[in-house]
Amino acid sequence: MPLHDEQQLFEMLVLEGAQAGLSWLTVLKKRNAYREAFNDFDPNIVAKYDHERIEQLLENKGIIRNRLKIASAINNANKFLDVQKDFGSFDQYIWQFVDKRQKHNTWSSLTDIPARTTESDVMSKNLKHRGFSFVGSTICYAFMQATGMVNDHLISCFRHNEIAQMCQ
Hints:
Elements (H helix, E strand, L loop, with lengths): L5 H14 L4 H6 L1 H7 L5 H4 L4 H9 L7 H21 L2 H5 L8 E2 L13 H12 L7 H10 L3 E2 L6 H9 L2
Helix pairs in contact: 1-6, 1-9, 8-9
């Protein structure tokens, strides 16, 4: 389903970055621990994390304890807030990459679903230009899937048509 809630969009941005190089299931199993560790993904709070807080997070066995990914979450919180100032909301900014409408794909097989697209390439480049990190094109496409910017349910899935009809 298309996601437009600012805090949830930030959550997906952090989780997709944390997932880099790992399975999505690994991150999903740690999602509740991430919510607790990262103050329910409030970018205003995460943006103020200091060295002491980073060290605490590196000791937290409930999350992926990768210094670069933790630093990225903090950096991206700051950049997220910058985007909110520039565009009024992160939602306004991020949905421009799909012309503010969910893109409906018609995949028949899981092997048809790409790891990246032209839209995710453009999103990645723009996010990097704004100073975001852990936002390669593949991560951006996964973000687009997780936030409902694209409907990648297979056409055989009952959710495909249901979501397509809800988003018209």
